[in-house]
Amino acid sequence: MTIVVTGATGHLGRLAIESLLAKGVPASEIVGLGRQVDKIADLGITVKQVAYEDVDALTDAFRGADKVLFISGSEVGRRIQQHTNVVTAAKNAGVGLVVYTSAPKADTTDMKLAAEHLFTERLLADSGLPHTILRNSWYIENYNVQQALEHGLFGAAGRGRIAASPRADYAEAAASALVGEGHAGKVYELGGESFTMDELAAEISRLSGKTVTYTDLPEEKYAELLVGVGLPPAAAEILADSDRAASRGALDVPRTDLETLLGRPVTPLADSIRAQLS
């Protein structure tokens, strides 16, 4: 069996490969695709420098692949063409199963971040390729605990609950979908322990011994704050809109699907915070 992991040089991709190896998949059966291939050169797998823009290189890389972990691109606004290339290449190469990392509630949410993911889900459905959709909710790493200790937490999520888990949980779930059976045609809503931003601040305070507060801002003011700390306006708009959607429940999903794929409880919020504190 050959498993190809796209976006393998990013944080999630590397963790997914490490999880596949931990589950007993031989390194000789894993191919990692990415731009900065030096980042995964130590894993002992086959590594190929391939970008989402190059459909011919993607097709060549996918030939002979039984399964592909299709990690979504990170460049909002460019993903429709990039993802079209990946799906086209997978179909041309006759891939047996595509496992795609999507966004929570992609088919019902009004969160701007989900639009390109929903496009990709429909693209996969129209392609006829066997596929599995992993709708990953927030990564707990989206919240920098060390910065929170210095400056507090800011956002526009109100009292909305956010079901977050470490990247490693989502990576392990992806590996389970790749090595297990019966996942084709399934859509999994993946989320960890849920919390409000006030609860996150309180937990950081409890574990650090230093008072951390959450300041809730209007969506537009939060976008301005993000631009002020260096984010491009387009990225700031997407993140502020995600918080706006979170305030209405867009990021609150049950942990059931994630725990099913993990075969264990999700990582507790307290453990995730301790890991950042250390």
Automatic annotation (TrEMBL):
Residues 2-237 form the NmrA-like domain. PANTHER family: NMRA-LIKE DOMAIN-CONTAINING PROTEIN, QUINONE OXIDOREDUCTASE 2. It is an enzyme of class 1 (oxidoreductase). Its EC number is 1.6.5.2. GO terms for molecular function: NAD(P)H dehydrogenase (quinone) activity. This is SDR family oxidoreductase. Signal peptide: none annotated. Keywords: Oxidoreductase.
